[in-house]
Amino acid sequence: MMMVLGLFVFSLKTLPYQDMQHAVAWRHPASSRVGLRPASQFIGVGDETITLNGVLLPELTGGRFTLFFLRKMADQGMAWPLIEGTGSLHGWFVIESLNVTRSVFFRDGAARRIEFTLALKRVDPPKLGGLLGDIITMVDGL
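Structure (tokenized):
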């Protein structure tokens, strides 16, 4: 297991990613001052995003079903915990976008190679009271 996003497991057999980009920003708004540099004030953490890029080879790895499952998760608009295979918890993330490029096709039009980019955005953790109901709703939607 490489990583888990909620109920979805990233592994060599499902959706293996080749690289992971992690960006964190902090907010420092500035106020203009006469004769001086603008004054800035730290007001907290800003956006945190994780982008996963990878290639699916449906003959060897996951295929359309794995991408379908991720789309269904994104359609729910829910936040999911993101946990690395090492046990590191990155926090709660929503799926912002999933870009897919299919190439090298079989005669029937099925792709032999599927490149993907998955963009995740960190959000505050949900209230745990409604989390179980959200998970049941998600599973029923599949």
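The two ends are 22 Å apart (CA to CA). The chain has one domain: 3-26+44-141.
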